Amino acid sequence: MRSFGQMAWLSVASLGLVAAASGCTSITDHRGYIIDQALVDAVQPGVDNRQSVEKTLGRPTFTSQFGPQDWYYISQNVKTPPFRRPRTSDQVIYRLRFDAAGNVAAIDKRGMEKVARLNPEGDKTPTLGRNRGLLEDLFGNVGTVGAGGGGAGAPSGGPNGSQ
Hints:
By secondary structure, this protein is an alpha+beta fold. The protein has helices at residues 4-22, 37-42, 50-57, 134-139, and strands at 27-32, 62-63, 71-80, 87-98, 104-110.
């Protein structure tokens, strides 16, 4: 038969394991526009204009900055597994195009095919040029300061070439 101390230790250990296991669940988060499909379906090309779309769907997530002013409504579901970076699990993009009079010309729907997965190269950004070490960074300019490369016809004297 076990003593009271052993039973208490076992119950504390089991509670600790349960708490640790519950902390290893992924987090699901919603970002952006909350889509109400009935409202999106209510917007009709050729019937609605910018003002009626704003009253029906609300302000867009963003508008295009160049070219014709299209409105974008973006909705994303993002999952964050334990000890990892967030990943987009579901995405819907509605683009509303308007004609010159401000009426809805078309509504385009896109999904996960517009998600770009970027894989950076480790902890360093590749750059052009030489790879210099610490000592070269510290002492690389020794002897080059003030060495103007003199020679025939080289200006001498002050910063403007005068003496």
